[in-house]
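User: Hey, quick favor. My workstation is busy. Could you predict this chain's structure for me?
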Amino acid sequence: MKKIALWAMICAAGLTASSQSNVSTNTLLWRISGNNLSKPSYLFGTIHLLCANDIELSETLKSAIKETDKVYLELDMDNLFEMMQAVQKMKMRNDTTLSDLLSDSDYKKVKAFFTSKRSLIPFSILETYKPMLAASMIMQTSTDCDNAISMEQIIMQQAKQDRKEIKGMETMTYQLSIFDSIPYEVQAKQLLAFITENDTEDKASKEYDEMASAYRNQELHKLEQLINKEELGIGNFADLLLYNRNKNWVVTMGKIFATNSAVIAVGAGHLPGEKGVINLLRKAGYKVDPMENKMLKTNERQL
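Assistant: No problem, here it is.
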């Protein structure tokens, strides 16, 4: 099966971002112009977790943040009230737990796996979460550093430094509600499959390292290949998880661009592909051009 944790990591807030074709230029930063825009806006691909020592914002992206009016992430992560309200939405409905969805032996296997991992969330709480959310947390234990950070955090820091308003394309409540449309039994089986395939620390670390390397090298086509390497088993939910959201975002972006210039930062996996955000923006009449984006630490630059 396709690796759920990789899938969630490449999509900043925990939702999938599969696609169908490549972007040939290795960059995560794109300039949006044309279509009667008075000022350009920018599109950037994020990732949920990287070692802070590995990466920094490029000077190009810093300039884009400084020059534009607002910064939009998938979620307004600076809205603590909304984030706190959404905590209850992480849980399955009707007091469902993993023990209700798995056989006794499979449940014990999942419990043993999470109990052995470093986690700030006790398994007694984690087992009440929607299984895809639990799967997304597995990768957080696979980094080989103690200072892991998300690209969203770095972007927020820069936006605050430049006194830019930070807003969200979606709400956390909405994102979490999407998982209620996918049968919990399907999610639990995929979680079990992931754990079975990654029963050793080396396997999970290798998957993370491969994904992190592709992101650092800004290879959108490679990220796409990693996500699509094997069947995830949720193909029937592609429109729900991906394509409808991409289309909605492009409509929202059009409304944003009508009154403000902005940096739009969403999961990198949402960018490429026939139904990806880049192509949809072009179909909507915008010019979307790749930009140089040297973001590795000085002693590790590969671009």
